[in-house]
Amino acid sequence: MESKLLLNVIVKQEEKGYSVICPELNVASQGETFEESIENIKEAVELYIESAEELGIIDEVLEQLGLTKEDLKKKSLVPRVVTANVPVEISIQ
After folding, report:
1. What is the number of domains present in the chain?
2. 72-92: b (≥16 Cβ within 10 Å) or e
3. Is residue 22 part of a domain?
4. pLDDT given at position 2
């Protein structure tokens, strides 16, 4: 059964393209366009998960996300460990 995992990514515009990181898994990628960088990080995360499974460390990776193998039976997953944008007022003098 295939599940969809919703992860946060941070995309940064660089001089020549875009860099992107998934902080929950510490996986990074890049692309010439914003869209390409998103597609590339998806592929990088999929390969990371596949490799973790092959290496027998998938439980540790899922634990990083606050998930278990039992959670993978759900169609859509949101990690219990998430980042959020929090507005903070600042005053610099």
Report:
1. 1
2. eeeeebebeeeeeeeeeeeee
3. yes
4. 72
The answer to the question of residue 87 being in a domain is: no
Per-residue pLDDT, 68: 84
pTM of full prediction above 0.90: no
Q: Which residues of the chain have pLDDT under 50?
A: none
Residue 82 DSSP SS3 = coil
3-state DSSP assignment of residue 21: strand
Q: Which domain holds residue 65?
A: 8-75
Share of the chain above pLDDT 70, in %: 89
By C-alpha distance, which of 83, 50, 53, 51 is closest to 65? Answer: 83
The reply to whether 86 falls in a domain is no
